[in-house]
Fold this protein.
Amino acid sequence: MSEEKIVISASPHVHSDRTSKKLMYDVVIALIPAFLVSLYVFGIGALIVTSVAIISCIVFEYLIQKFILKSEITILDGSALITGILLAFNVPSSLPIWMIIVGSLVAIGIAKLSFGGLGFNIFNPALVGRVFLLVCFPVQMTLWPTPVVNNTAIVDAVTGETTLGIIKNGLMYGETMTTIASKIPSTLDLLLGITGGSLGEMSALALLIGGIYLIIRKVITWHIPVTLLVTMLVFTGIYWLVDPETYVNPMIHILSGGALLGAFFMATDLVTSPMTKKGMVIFAIGIGIITVVIRFYGAYPEGISFAILIMNAFVPLINSYFKPRRFGNKIKSKII
Amino acid sequence: MLKTFPKGGIHPKENKLTSSESIKMMPTPKAVYVPIAQHIGIPAEIIVERKEKVKKGQVIAKSGGFVSSNIHTPVAGTVTKLDMIIDSSGYKKQCIVIRTDQKDETNHEILDFPLKKEIIMNQKDILQHITDFGIVGLGGATFPSHVKLDLKNDNHVDCLLINGVECEPYLTADHRLMLEKADEIIVGIQILMHALHIKKAIIGIENNKKDAVKVLAKACKHDKRIKVAALQVKYPQGSEKQLIKAILKREVPKNGLPMDVGVIVHNVGTIYAIYQAIQHNQPLIERVVTVTGKNIKDASNFWVKIGTPIKDLIEEVGGLPEGTRKIVNGGPMMGKAIKNTDVPITKGTSGILVISSEEASRKEAKNCIRCGECVFVCPMGLEPHLLMNLSEKGMYEKASYEDITTCIECGSCSYVCPSHRPLLDYIRFGKSIVKKLATEKN
């Protein structure tokens, strides 16, 4: 045994087998059920949109790191892959391919790498890409393709409108809630994903399965998703109880649109969410309230993307105000 | 639900390979290397000369102040050198080298009978004995025990906690000691309770040592004042503050001491050493050391004379296995890696861990993904990621404001970090500078 081989380092000398890469791939696994539902509902379109988003995110990250930043290439760490999938999940499955590529460039180039890469971005990259597309191409971004499996005939056969869109338009034209309720998909359909909407927000059930997987694997904690959904439930519930003629059943709010996708996969993004549990709860309440305010009073039927991005901006502030309680702090010598 | 501390903590693989190996007597080495700084505080002063003959148990270095401790020779023999040798800190330290002779003469009568339950010494003598016999905390911190026991008159200490947690993976020294010396430990506890007028004692043991819980509960059945508390297995429960919180739900204030919440904590090893000192007139010259590692042939626990070179112990368990990359003095979470095996066993050495190549090297550090895992596991409620950043950037004032000095260096943050960031390395560095700046200010 030669002595040169003995290494010296400071403690601890053991490490858990958690790695960033494993966390990232767990997120990818958790997104698979929702993807399978989209594939079933939208057919080949879902596959094309998702593959284009993934490939362009990875390629852009490679090109920018290689030729512009001249930094280490990190395309294998799984984060660009997730950005790609989440971007695809947030757009209609009929979106022109070049728009997806533009969205990917904004997500990776502007929202992620210009801030310093993984860990330094303030805003969720996929959502920045999505909101950029929504603002630039509002028509294409709200043209929802009709689900291929439309055995309910509830969803508008031509435009395949989203549940939240139906409600918003209905209210605009002065329809009563009873009329609107007859047009929107049943709770069961929302659960299974037989409805119009973005590629990944179809099936509440598939998203729930993925979310629970993430919690079991300890990639995320329950704090953000549960607080966010409860906040929305309570907030919309109050409106509904006061005026059930104008406001829809709170369960519809939770199950439709991007609420579950946002709660489990977008708001919980490790990089752009607070680092303490107290902070997470505050963050999630903020998102819940802003989402509902946009849904009720904003121009867009759905507001969770905006809500998450707005709260992302508050994360540094939340981190510095909601600190964990220090052990032994402000405790008077308690002598018993 | 078993008791535990509420905030933070981790559960690394226990790897207690040697928990069923009874403690073997390590043969007396040919020579011992006894450092004079084996405890926290002022090093002891050498009072022997070269070529002087010494008898086993004789004081060879005298306590250098209040926070200091006497050092006794563990063997009889001749002082051959007063030299600087590298100890487990990696620095050269003053050290007394004694060549063992065959006569094995003892300085004063070390009383050798099986178990002596009756406590005849008065309180003042007990405390004096603990001071004179070089007893220090054997859990690893090596804080001179008499300092902890020096209660001011206005103290309100009502509970003695005995730390038998041994939350470090691999180590089983305390576990074996509790199994084999349960009666002695109970007497040791009674001695301290008698000396300090404490009416309640609780022995905290993690529930992965069910046999020790049982044995000690049985041994203290006749004494209603002593209880055994089985604790949930969670690292770092062996830390004084976390243990007090777990068992008594009392929280030691920031920068405070257990005494501030009416508690004194002693490790089971220390209690046994106190028993030996008071009842058997034996100074602290030997201790239990676990020698372990996944590839070690005969990993076991040993009674080792202080000053025995680590290489003797490694020889005893079958030599360093092929592919050894790291030798750790202590456990894997808080132990110190050592470069060579000439380093002697000191009062604070609870184990020697040999780590093979697959586990020894650290992985490359990646960007912080801000997952907050380090914040969740920190038992002190700190934000390791922030403290690392502040230390890295030299923002020591802010680091001090963020309570960097309360870090107990348990390493839970570095252990869990999925990006393999060297959090504790930076925190330790920042902490030392913050402390230095604070002393300069005063």
